[in-house]
Amino acid sequence: MPGDLGEIVRLHGMLYAEEYLFDNTFEAYVAGPLSEFLLSKDREGQRIWVVEAEGKVAGCIAIVRSGEGVAQLRWFLLTPETRGKGLGKRLMEEAVEYSRRAGYRRIILWTFSELETAIALYRRWGFQKTEEKTHHIWGRDLTEEKYELELT
Q1: Is the pLDDT of residue 2 over 80?
Q2: Cα 33 to Cα 61: distance, rounded to the nearest angstrom
Q3: Could you tell me if residue 40 is left (phi over 0), alpha (psi between -120 and 50 degrees) or otherwise beta?
Q4: Residue 111's domain is classified under what CATH number?
Q5: How confident is the model over 104-145, as pLDDT tens digits?
Q6: pTM for the whole thing?
Q7: How far does CA 117 lie from the centroid of its chain?
Q8: Tens digit of pLDDT for each residue in 32-59?
């Protein structure tokens, strides 16, 4: 829908600034690839789900192609008001099942170590941590973690 891209970027920027003290470079990190995804004519095997509550964007999750047989889970976010209601589990189910139907062999995702609730959800789905790196990004030092789920 018109306005969804801007709202998704805004939500990421605002929530990560409030909850994790990220600076505005995080918005650019979200906006660039999200814009490319939405402008792409290649939709096969790629999809974004947008959660709405009371007529407003309240979250999202996406599956994008990351390589031959590899999907990447991206832009997974729920507003504080929508958390704890099973929506995260439902979005994960949609994304994982969609990836299976699309023929992907693996799903990867990048997160950071402070997102403990999300990481617990990823682990419940069978994702395993395969890499981590600590560096200064988005205005602070943090540890990014890569998780992978084999679908075969």
Answers
A1: no
A2: 14
A3: beta
A4: 3.40.630.30
A5: 999 999 999 999 999 999 999 999 999 999 999 999 999 999
A6: 0.93
A7: 14
A8: 999 999 888 888 899 999 999 988 999 9
Can you tell me which residue has the tokens 């979200």? 30
Helix, strand, coil shares of the chain, percent, nearest 5, are: 40, 35, 25
Q: Which of 23, 16, 12 is nearest to 136 (CA)?
A: 23
- CA dihedral sign, ordered 96, 97, 98, 101: positive
In the chain, the number of structural domains is: 1
Range of the domain at 36: 4-150
The pair of three-digit structure tokens given for residue 108, joined into one six-digit string: 């990867």
Other CB atoms closer than 10 Å to residue 49's CB: what's the count? 16
